[in-house]
Amino acid sequence: MTKKYKVLLYYKYVNLENPQEVMSWQRELCESLNLKGRIIIADEGINGTLSGLENESDKYIRETMSRPEFSDMEWKISYSNAQNFPKMKIKYRPEIVTLGVKKTGKDVNIDNKAHYIEPEELLNLYENNENFLILDARNLYEANIGKFKNALTPPIDSFREFPAFAKTIEDYKDKEIVTYCTGGIRCEKASAYLRENGFKKVRQLHGGIQTYGDKTGGKHFEGEMFIFDDRLHIPVNTVDPKIISECKFCNTKVSRYIDCNLIGCPSLFICCSECEEENNGSCSKECFDKINETNASLRNNKTVVQANV
Ligand SMILES: [Zn+2]
Ligand SMILES: [Zn+2]
Hints:
- The structure is a single chain.
- The chain is α/β, with parallel strands linked by helices.
- It has 9 helices and 15 strands.
- Strands 4-1-3-2-5 form a 5-stranded mixed β-sheet. Strands 6-10-9-7 form a 4-stranded parallel β-sheet.
- The structure holds zinc ion (2 copies).
């Protein structure tokens, strides 16, 4: 079966002289190619996740790389049978990702970022039972459905909580640390932050989990990778996949996140397809009842409208 859509994930830290101009150029480009997703443009660079038909996505890559400041962009590509983004959003932000340490100015000097460790090298560390700390730079809800074996997973809901977390692992300042995230963008700053705060032996996984899966087959990654589009998670490990998470209702082993079906409920939870159906996609008894009430009132309204006609 041929897959129709490409999903592109990319970032580049580079000083942009005129972010507004980059924004209008990108907006036009995306519209002309009918791409959807989101792009953040900042003085410090660009970060995007986009999806479109294969030819259009390839054209986007070529066009974007035709600009000198983006000519060495690295792309993480996955495939999908559907368009996973509802619309195209391009936003200006002061930073492409933020640790939120300082009110104004830069949280870290990005030049202090750690050296990369390539996917194959990380695989070797595991295979040779090397003594190192593998540190997840993502949020806990992401790590809950998939993470590297033995990874330390910070109990954080947002990247802004990472600096406070770092204070709790000061015992590891002399230890060999490898940080990782989805595609690498957060590690650039997390690793710089750690190094600026006395952690001496930090490296960051080049290209993140996604590149690791593509290049090594994903051995030693357990569960699936959380992603920020409608798919919510994608497989990484094709060598010896295992599931580390459980359905919140029946405890069946499953790497499957869903959004609560009740509009306005922010809950994102792990749920098997049987329980999703049984509970009408709700995260709780309260949401289940509210969904039923809403459906009942919609049915009633419909009856009224029909009666008026
Ligand atoms: Zn279940
Ligand atoms: Zn809910």
